[in-house]
Amino acid sequence: MLGPIDLLIPPVLLVGSILTLPFTLISTAARGQLKTLSNWPKLRHYWFHNLWFWFGPSTKFLFAGRVKPLLEHANGLVLDIGPASGIWMPELSEAVKQGKITKIYGVEPNVNFQGQLRAAAKRYGLADIYQPLQVYAQDLETCGIKKGSVDTIITVHVLCSVGNHAGPLVKELYEYLKPGGQWLVYEHVASKHFPIQLWQRLINVIWPTLLDGCHICRDTTKTLLAAGPWEKVDVHMDANEGYFESLPHLYGTLVKAA
User: Fold this and answer.
1) What's the rounded Cα separation, in Å, for the pair 104 and 85?
2) Where do transmembrane segments lie in this chain (predicted)?
3) Which of 62, 84, 112, 161 is exposed most, by the fewest CB atoms within 10 A?
């Protein structure tokens, strides 16, 4: 909570993404993957992978105070949606050690993160528990995951990055939760303050292009509530984030109605 300085955080991140682009282009060419240079979706995924390499681990401490307590509630069969390189694997490992979690599917469509997810699972003793899946939500049934069978869904900084598919995606994932199953959510969303919303909209003109489709003006609460009936909705805006916060967060738990 840095006051007006918080307004500068999104531009700084955009600059970081731009500075990562030359390395992305050079390394792509050096690996002989010239076709990727003309394939925008593949190039964008690889670009974000390179940005996340330094940004993800280095900023984890900023969110850990909210995310760690949230992940302590994970149990049973878990869908970890969009885990990227798996920076929250240590926290999930603790839940496994306590006998809360029986199986985790890491649903990560970005092929560039698959090796890191497998390595992280092995590093934290989850090789037999954590299974990375390079699929989208609509393909989960082809992996043997049945609708109505999942105890916990986790989305941490994910629903911002699904383009215009947030509504259909959330409804699809809702179907996989069993009655009484829980959705643990931590997402950056639209500010509740109109002047800051205007700043977000300005930033969002270029933000999705430089950050793999991410949008910073989402009304994620509305999207989640529209997915289907909930028995319990315990989600809040982070009260520790100030008025000028340009990437404010929504966090909490939703429990599917029986």
Assistant:
1) 15
2) 7-26
3) 62
pTM flag (> 0.70)? yes
**CB contact burial 134-169 (16+ within 10 A = b; e otherwise):** ebebeebeeeebeeeebbbbbbbbbbbbbeeebeeb
Return the amino acid letter for 111.
Answer: V
pLDDT along the chain (258 residues), means of 10: 87 97 96 92 96 95 96 98 97 96 98 97 97 95 96 98 91 98 98 97 97 95 97 96 96 97
* Chain centroid to CA 41: 18
Cα 5 to Cα 1, 8, 12, 66, 244: the distances in Å are 9, 6, 11, 22, 8
**Fold of the domain built from segment(s) 63-256:** Rossmann fold (3.40.50)
